[in-house]
Write a structure and sequence with these properties.
The complex is a heterodimer of chains A (515) and B (102). Chain A has twelve helices and 20 strands. By secondary structure, chain A is α/β, with parallel strands linked by helices. Chain A folds into four domains: 62 residues, no CATH class; 147 residues, no CATH class; 152 residues, no CATH class; 113 residues, no CATH class. Chain B is of the alpha+beta class. Chain B has one domain: Orthogonal Bundle (Arc Repressor Mutant, subunit A), CATH 1.10.10. Chain B is built from four helices and three strands. In chain B, strands 1-3-2 form a three-stranded antiparallel beta sheet. In chain B, strand 2 and strand 3 form a beta hairpin. The chains are: A alpha/beta (515), B alpha+beta (102). At the A-B interface, helix 2 and helix 4 of A face helix 3 of B.
Chain lengths: 515, 102
């Protein structure tokens, strides 16, 4: 009797997990012991005291959160399907007019308006100088961008929601079964559904909302207060430009360039005229002056009150303004002085120049075929520097983020400096060389091989190797912290006067004869 | 009675009984049944749940007459939980009394 009771109860409790079921069964087992042992009751008496197994199971299952099993739904039993033809007519009209035409139209209008706005913001003329206006404007643009991303996700959800609604309606009208399953499946396509499931994602969405609101409000108000500067947000338009002046053989000219957002190329020509041509930014009021009294070519553009952030977007997206300066072969240039903010500079084919002085913020430099020059000085922050076939008494090339590559250089005093970039020098003749990098390799090959030996070489980097091959300089000092050192000369008859080499965390492979 | 309320009240009853003295399932049922007239099958899942939530622990106590019986004992967090339930009950009781004009 007890056994039968226990078995029956067990089978009724079968929806429970095995462990839970055993725990509950243990209570009843114990109940039988206690009743029998302590109260002297018979099994039948105990069973009479207890509820019947079915009720026990129902109560227990209820405590565990199990609901009684659903009866077969009446809907499923209804075999005869009644179509409402009026409803079907309306659904067809709705499908034809609204779903296939109006809804896509609305969505595409919203999206294209938004994209237009974003496109406008991306093409604006962003400033290079990071003044307060620039920050406000970037903040405002980012705010709009974030908001647009949020809006797109919301719109997508609305679209999916609309489809779910449509499917439900159709299934209702045509009495298609399995609605719940289909709808649950469709819900998974909503972004919101996943956001709700992952609280961190949801939190981020909320944060993004806040951030964009703050950016737009602060940036927007501030920009409205500075409305005078707003009108110069115009998109950068390029215009062709050309100006020339006739020269006579043997003239001596000076070139002074100071431009924003423009590459400058200085090129030799066989024409008798000095010509400046290229694409210039319309709004920048480019000015070219040929001063015949002092023989000076002045090229300037001006964007003073301009709200320009060129650096960021423009470097990536828009084409650059280019100025080509053509110098006739039969005249001389005394000095070249170039300041190019966000512009690359190249100078080719010159001899007997006094000095070249070039500064840029985000621009690469390239020099080829320049001989007989006293001083070449070029500094940039983000740009590669390459120099090929240069003969300069003093040569200073500096960049912050860029490699320096020089080849066939002749210089008494050479200085190559970069912070994040490699330095490579080949087939060159130098007397004193100072070469330094912080996070880059230094590679010197075939230095002073044919001419007289160099005097001093100092090469230093922090995180990088230094590799010297056939470097015939009398006093050499090479230092690195995290990198290897290597020095090898083929000519064994060359003896160094002094060699200092030091690395903290790297190996050395030095193989040169020394006095 | 509202399920949520009933659940809380029964938890309070069960924990109070065990707080007085470690005891076994059937005794707890009898004590509550005596006052509230509740079914046995309601109490056992509650005991099981309270163990699972860490408010109670069990140990086997050998007996002279038959097999060892499972005794329930309050844990530290069980005692804290009991205190909070007591507070909640007293506030509830006070408010209801006010409402019905005791």
């Amino acid at each position: 009797m007890k056994k039968q009771f226990i078995e029956t109860l067990k089978s009724y409790l079968s929806p429970l997990e095995e462990q839970e079921r055993q725990e509950i069964m243990a209570f009843y087992e114990e109940r039988f012991f206690t009743g029998a042992m302590y109260e002297g009751k018979t099994e039948q008496e105990i069973i009479d005291e207890l509820e019947n197994p079915k009720d026990i199971a129902r109560n227990v299952l209820k405590e565990y959160g199990y609901r009684p099993q659903n009866k077969v739904s009446s809907e499923a039993q209804d075999d005869t399907v009644h179509f409402n033809f009026f409803k079907i007519f309306w659904i067809l009209v709705f499908d034809l007019l609204i779903v296939t035409w109006l809804v896509p139209l609305l969505f595409s209008v919203v999206i294209s308006v938004g994209s237009g706005l974003i496109g406008f913001l991306l093409n604006l003329n962003y400033p290079t100088t990071m003044d307060i206006n620039a920050f406000l404007f970037i903040g405002f643009s980012l705010g709009v961008l974030f908001l647009w991303i949020l809006l797109i996700t919301w719109l997508y959800d609305v679209f999916v929601g609309f489809i779910i609604w449509l499917v439900r309606w159709h299934m209702d009208v045509f009495k298609i079964q399995g609605k719940k399953k289909v709808l649950r499946f469709l819900k998974q396509f909503q972004i919101h559904y996943h956001l709700k499931k992952h609280s961190t994602l949801y939190q981020w969405k909320q944060n993004l909302k806040m951030i964009s609101a703050i950016l737009i409000i602060i940036g927007g108000i501030a920009l409205l207060l500075r409305q005078g500067q707003l009108e110069v947000f115009a998109t950068k338009e390029l215009a062709s430009y050309q100006e020339s002046i006739e020269t006579e053989e043997g003239d001596l000219w000076t070139l002074e360039v100071s431009v924003f957002e423009s590459d400058v190329n200085i090129i030799r020509t066989d024409e008798p005229n000095i010509t400046v041509s290229g694409e210039v930014i319309e709004d920048y009021e480019t000015m070219i002056v040929f001063d015949t009294e002092t023989n000076t070519i002045k090229i300037e553009n001006d964007r003073d009150a301009r709200f320009v952030i060129s650096g960021f977007w423009q470097l990536i997206f828009s084409e650059d303004s280019v100025l080509d300066v053509y110098i006739p072969r039969d005249i001389h240039l005394d000095s070249v002085d170039i300041i190019a903010h966000n512009g690359a500079v190249s100078i080719n084919d010159f001899e007997t120049l006094q000095s070249i002085d070039i500064t840029s913020t985000n621009g690469a430099f390239s020099f080829t075929n320049i001989t007989g020059i006293e001083r070449l000085e070029a500094r940039t922050t983000n740009g590669r520097i390459t120099a090929n076939h240069i003969q300069a008494d003093t040569m200073i090339l500096e960049t912050t983020n860029g490699t320096i590559t020089v080849e066939t250089i002749v210089s008494d005093d050479l200085r190559l400096v970069t912070t994040n970039g490699n330095i490579t020098m080949r087939q060159s003749d130098v007397i004193d060389a100072h070469i330094s990098s912080s996070n880059g390799r230094i590679n010197l090959t075939d230095i002073n091989e044919t001419t007289q030996h160099g005097q001093n070489l100092y090469a230093k980097t922090t995180n990088g190797d230094i590799e010297l091959t056939n470097v015939y300089i009398k006093r050499v000092e090479i230092r690195t912290t995290n990198g290897n050192l290597g020095y090898h000369n083929t000519d064994r008859s060359f003896y160094l006067d002094r060699l200092i080499h030091q690395t903290t965390n790297g190996s050395k492979n030095i193989d040169v004869p020394k006095n | 009675m509202d399920t949520q309320l009933k659940k809380g009240v029964l938890d309070l009853c069960v924990l109070s009984i065990i707080d007085e003295k470690d005891t076994y399932g059937y005794f707890i049922y009898q004590a509550i049944d005596y006052v509230l007239g509740i079914s046995e099958s309601t109490i056992y899942p509650i005991l099981r749940r309270l163990v699972k939530e860490g408010y109670l622990t069990t140990y086997l106590k050998p007996s002279v007459h038959g097999p060892a019986r499972k005794f329930f004992k309050l844990t530290d967090i069980g005692r804290t939980h009991l205190n909070s339930l007591q507070d909640a009950w007293q506030t509830f009781e006070y408010k209801v009394n006010q409402l019905i004009g005791e």
